[in-house]
């Protein structure tokens, strides 16, 4: 489809013919032409003196057929969203406040440009042409303006116009149409040289241009010529950034391809806006940049905290000889063809001295092990790839098959064990088998190249031989060819840096849609299975964009397109893609198509049906159920009966297993409630000790009942002492009462008995009071030692009837005789 729109306009009416899909042809009567269209037609006819100066409504109907001039409008260029000076061009439509997003040019008026906004462009031109999106960069837009035809038309109009030169000169001097001379780039590129579209040509420029100059499109490119050094930035003659609103110092110098004398100094921030950041490494004027130089550029030439600087390869030494040489463009257009496959050869095996004295990190970005060997590419012999044993196993399928492919003739056992211990995380690494080979150890005197690349190896190569194992489906960074993974003839094939960059781009897209755990799949058999399962579950037609989004971008677009082509078009009937036309003559014989052996075992060939659309986004794919097993009607009857029988049998086995599980659960619960053998032994020992104490207490109690005479003798002694105590107490009380009466209360009986009187008496009351005071003091001291809060008492002391005769009570204080002459115990809590 052409990437432009052709609009044919007539003086009476407007016949708009659009070549892009999705816009129908329309005829607009002259009386219904919008005011905006009329104004634009008036402006287009102003500069043509010989052409009709009347507006659309001034053309007589009878002369419309004679004065119809076919006019074609082409999209000249896309305007950026913002400029360096902040000025945005307005829409050319009258009374329209919108901002111009595109420039259109007419075949009748090649000198004039029509700036239009999104709304007016949709109304006048039917929107953006097919294949062009509003956010496309200028270098992504294919400009289809035929400058030669425009020039011819301009010359034709100039012959009938005598005052054309005067009008053109006045238009050039008009400040509104005068072009800005600042060499600011039109739009940043996509990581390569910034590309700027041809500047806005004035009418005089078009007239002065020769036909040879207009034969091909003029594109201005801005090339990074110089990066300011530390002395240039910090010196007294430091150059300022040429952007009007910027006050930073210049970090780079760009020159134009059309005018090499035109120089543009820019800072790091303006470079990010105008040129989309730094170019690729092979486009830089230098091959290395020190950290001090980067810090100087960040501090003097940027206001941003997160500044992207050129990512030069890290070298552990001072030499820069092994840096990546220019000439290796990272792009899909430069990928090696299948005929010129890139091969990586094992050139060196690190010696023990190399690893001990000056180890080099493995070039795999996520690996931290020291390198065990060095590989070189036939495309870039100066580029070295350092690999540990684990990465070598993943990337190259291990060591070469033949000892002749090794750079040495022998490796000692100590050397092999040292490589395994230092350069691998596994202990079962396969090493070359040198049994019977001549002993020629690796020399330790070889020089060590300390270049450490930062590129992650890409997925498996595109060459597929003898099928692909399932383990290779979930692709991880691995530069080994698939043929080395499946037992075919193994070669040291390794993709180039271009494929590495492309793999990174695919991996980033998959992680942005599927999360950090997403891994891309480039194996066509596995990709076909993923595509078919997705569409079978979706049960609806889908275009390639929906399929790509449904798979979370884990299948890259080129691989997805190739898989859909294989699955949608039956390779055995590749010539029958569309329905036969009724207009075709008679029955053409269908040509026999030779069966391609590589599709003989492809179970997904023809599994999808394809409906052609106007473009790739409107073309639909859906599952061809007629090619499924049993014509898409499910499994056959006999297989269904067998499956049903197995289902009921499995269900019965499940019920029996559940019953066994329930019984085992009950037994487990009972066993868990019982003590273990160790707990039972410990508990038995404690119970035996307690039983022994009880037996001793019982024996002691039995001894008290053996001698009844001793019991009676003790009782009589207690009675005798009780009588003596009563007699002495009565005499003492009589004396105290008499003293109280004779002294008229000066001597108090109560105070004397309590121990506070004038007469000191060893009374029972005084002894009990002092004993209780001592007991309470002792208890409070114990509570403070145990940090027990005030007011909370410990376990209540046992009373006399609760205490055992064999064990004393801690709360016992003293004994006294009551009025009946019986012994009464006194406790602290009584």
UniProtKB/TrEMBL annotation:
It is found in: Nucleus. The keyword Coiled coil applies. It comes from the Eukaryota. One of its GO terms (cellular component) is DNA recombinase auxiliary factor complex. The keyword Coiled coil applies. Residues 152-164, 193-202 have a biased composition (Basic and acidic residues). This is Uncharacterized protein.
């Amino acid at each position: 489809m052409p990437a432009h729109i052709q609009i044919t306009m007539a003086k009476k009416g407007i016949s708009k013919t659009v070549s892009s899909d999705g816009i129908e042809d329309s005829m607009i009567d002259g009386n219904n032409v919008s005011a905006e269209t009329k104004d634009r037609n008036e402006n287009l006819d102003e500069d043509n003196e010989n052409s009709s100066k009347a507006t659309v409504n001034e053309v007589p109907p009878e002369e419309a057929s004679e004065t119809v001039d076919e006019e074609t409008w082409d999209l000249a260029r896309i305007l950026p969203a913002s400029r360096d000076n902040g000025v945005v061009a307005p829409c050319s439509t009258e009374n329209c406040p919108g901002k111009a997003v595109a420039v259109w040019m007419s075949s009748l008026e090649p000198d004039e440009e029509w700036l239009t906004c999104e709304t007016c462009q949709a109304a006048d031109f039917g929107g953006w042409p097919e294949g062009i999106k509003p956010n496309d960069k200028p270098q992504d837009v294919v400009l289809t303006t035929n400058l030669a035809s425009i020039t011819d038309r301009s010359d034709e109009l100039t012959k009938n116009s005598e005052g054309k030169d005067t009008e053109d000169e006045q238009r050039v001097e008009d400040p509104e149409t005068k072009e800005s001379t600042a060499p600011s780039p039109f739009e940043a590129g996509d990581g390569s040289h910034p590309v700027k579209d041809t500047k806005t040509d004035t009418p005089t420029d078009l007239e002065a241009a020769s036909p040879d100059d207009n034969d091909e499109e003029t594109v201005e490119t801005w090339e990074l010529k110089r990066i300011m050094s530390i002395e240039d930035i910090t010196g007294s003659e430091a150059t300022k950034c040429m952007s009007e609103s910027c006050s930073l110092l210049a970090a780079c110098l760009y020159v134009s391809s059309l005018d090499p004398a035109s120089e543009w100094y820019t800072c790091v921030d303006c470079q990010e806006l105008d040129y989309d950041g730094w170019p690729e490494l092979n486009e830089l004027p230098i091959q290395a940049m020190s950290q001090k130089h980067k810090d100087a550029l960040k501090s003097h030439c940027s206001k941003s905290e997160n500044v992207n600087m050129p990512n030069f390869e890290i070298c552990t030494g001072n030499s820069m000889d092994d840096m990546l040489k220019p000439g290796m463009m990272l792009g899909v257009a430069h990928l090696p063809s299948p005929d010129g496959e890139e091969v990586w050869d094992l050139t060196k095996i690190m010696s023990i001295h190399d690893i001990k004295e000056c180890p080099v990190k493995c070039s795999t970005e996520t690996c931290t092990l020291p390198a065990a060997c060095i590989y070189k590419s036939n495309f870039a012999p100066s580029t070295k790839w350092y690999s540990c044993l684990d990465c070598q196993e993943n990337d190259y399928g291990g060591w070469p098959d033949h000892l002749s492919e090794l750079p040495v003739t022998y490796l000692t056992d100590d050397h092999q064990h040292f490589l395994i211990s230092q350069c691998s995380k596994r202990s079962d690494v396969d090493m070359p088998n040198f049994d019977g080979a001549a002993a020629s150890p690796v020399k330790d005197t070889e020089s060590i190249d300390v270049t450490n690349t930062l590129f992650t190896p890409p997925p498996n190569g595109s060459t597929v031989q003898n099928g692909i194992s399932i383990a290779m489906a979930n692709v991880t960074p691995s530069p080994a060819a698939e043929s080395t993974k499946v037992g075919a003839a193994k070669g040291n094939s390794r993709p180039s840096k271009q494929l590495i960059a492309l793999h990174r781009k695919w991996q980033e897209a998959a992680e942005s849609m599927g999360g950090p755990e997403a891994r891309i799949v480039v194996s066509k058999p596995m990709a076909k299975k993923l595509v078919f399962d997705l569409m079978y579950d979706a049960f609806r037609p889908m275009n390639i964009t929906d399929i790509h989004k449904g798979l979370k971008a884990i299948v890259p677009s080129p691989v997805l397109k190739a898989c859909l082509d294989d699955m949608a078009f039956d390779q055995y009937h590749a010539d029958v893609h569309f329905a036969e036309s009724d207009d075709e003559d008679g029955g053409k014989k269908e040509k026999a198509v030779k069966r391609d052996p590589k599709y003989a075992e492809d179970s997904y060939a023809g599994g999808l049906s394809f409906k052609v659309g106007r473009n790739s986004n409107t073309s639909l794919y859906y599952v061809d159920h007629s090619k499924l097993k049993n014509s898409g009607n499910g499994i056959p009857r006999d297989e269904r009966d067998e499956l049903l029988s197995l289902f009921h049998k499995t269900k019965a086995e499940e019920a029996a297993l559940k019953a066994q599980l329930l019984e085992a659960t009950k037994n487990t619960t009972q066993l868990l409630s019982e003590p273990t053998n160790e707990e039972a032994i410990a508990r038995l020992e404690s119970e035996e000790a307690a039983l022994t104490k009880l037996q001793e207490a019982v024996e002691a109690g039995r001894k008290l009942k053996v001698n009844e005479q001793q019991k009676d003798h003790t009782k009589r002694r207690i009675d005798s002492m009780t009588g003596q105590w009563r007699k002495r107490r009565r005499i003492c009380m009589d004396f105290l009462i008499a003293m109280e009466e004779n002294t008229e209360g000066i001597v108090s009986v109560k105070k004397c008995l309590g121990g506070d009187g004038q007469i000191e008496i060893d009374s029972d009351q005084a002894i009990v009071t002092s004993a209780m005071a001592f007991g309470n003091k002792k208890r409070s001291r114990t509570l403070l030692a145990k940090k027990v809060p005030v007011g909370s008492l410990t376990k209540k002391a046992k009373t006399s009837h609760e205490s055992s005769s064999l064990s004393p009570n801690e709360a016992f204080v003293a004994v006294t005789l009551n009025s009946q002459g019986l012994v009464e115990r006194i406790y602290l809590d009584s």
